[in-house]
Design goal:
Order of helices and strands: HHEHEHEHEHEEHHEHEHEHH
Shape: globular
Oligomer: single chain
Structural class: alpha/beta
Radius of gyration: 30 Å
Strand order of the largest sheet: 2-1-3-4-8-9
Distance between the termini: 89 Å
Largest sheet: 6 strands, parallel
Length: 285
């Protein structure tokens, strides 16, 4: 006798699958070892590992320039993974400019490498005091004044600066005076190793500095307590190289010299500037 099993209808098949499939999934989950359910993420740090974040690099431009003067330096530092902030230096008066930078430093979590070019060096010297997160000062052809010294005073103590005779002074409301570099002398004095087409743009867009800022005496210098680095521009016609070397020695700064470099060394030699900043960042990690 032949027995023929009836073929289930489509609805019966669906009901059977609705029971069988969840049962199979549950069985598969139960078969997974407990250890594999909590498998470690290979990208996650091991327990107890110390994670060292790269410091934030704060770049402070000087007189007759703006934050774009750091563009080549910023590009190199960011490629290496450093967070970078190019400060818009007010260039109004040294205590006020330093207070402005100090307020910005208050907002940055973690370690900071503070970099100043030209008059920006005087600003970082005064602003870094009291900020435990500032781990290094880097001076790029910059003023590193001692207490009571001014930028104008330092420039006048060493022969060779062509800046004083090249200034154009214009009054501004409130009785102050702004100093510009005469565009006809800008390349010779400020950026002799930068192509002429670029220096014409730099001269036209230069940021003036209040004469009072250059004449203001510095407060207690942060370089006495914070490790310092210094880049000497070997052919600087704004701050004499002899003055730069003397300030670097006084600050016990680790020093490099770029032969033939003008005062606009962040523009003409961004790689050398970025390398020194990175050296400071690595040494203080």
């Amino acid at each position: 006798m032949t027995y023929t099993q009836p073929v289930p209808s489509g609805q019966a098949l669906l009901r059977r699958k609705s029971v069988v499939i969840p049962a199979l999934v549950a069985a598969a989950l139960l078969a997974i070892p407990a250890s594999s359910q909590a498998a470690p993420n290979p990208a996650a740090p091991a327990a107890g590992a110390v994670i060292t974040a790269k410091p934030t690099i704060v770049l402070v431009h000087g007189a007759f320039a703006d934050s774009s003067s750091w563009d080549g330096v910023v590009a190199r530092l960011e490629r290496e993974g450093y967070p970078v902030l190019g400060l818009a230096n007010p260039l109004r008066d040294l205590p006020g400019d330093a207070a402005y930078l100090s307020g910005v430093l208050d907002t940055i979590p973690g370690p900071v490498v503070l970099v100043g070019h030209s008059y920006g060096g005087a600003v970082i010297t005064d602003a870094a005091a009291g900020h435990a997160n500032v781990k290094a000062l880097v001076y790029i052809a910059a003023f590193a004044p001692d207490q009571g010294e001014s930028s104008l005073q330092i420039t006048g103590e060493y022969p060779g600066s062509q800046l004083p005779s090249s200034l154009v002074v214009r009054p501004f409301p409130g009785g102050g005076q702004d100093a510009y570099i005469d565009p006809a002398a800008f390349q010779k004095v400020f950026a002799a190793d930068v192509p002429a087409r670029e220096t014409r743009l730099m001269a036209a867009g230069q940021r003036p500095v209040a004469l009072a800022a250059l004449a203001a005496p510095s407060s207690a210098p942060a370089w006495r307590t914070i490790p310092s680095w210094y880049l000497v521009a070997g052919a600087d016609r704004a701050i004499p190289p002899a003055a730069e070397r003397a300030m670097a020695r006084r600050a016990h700064a680790r020093t490099v010299t770029v032969p033939g470099a003008s005062h606009a060394v962040p523009v003409s030699h961004p790689e050398a500037v970025a390398n020194l900043v990175e050296a400071a960042a690595r040494a203080t990690a």
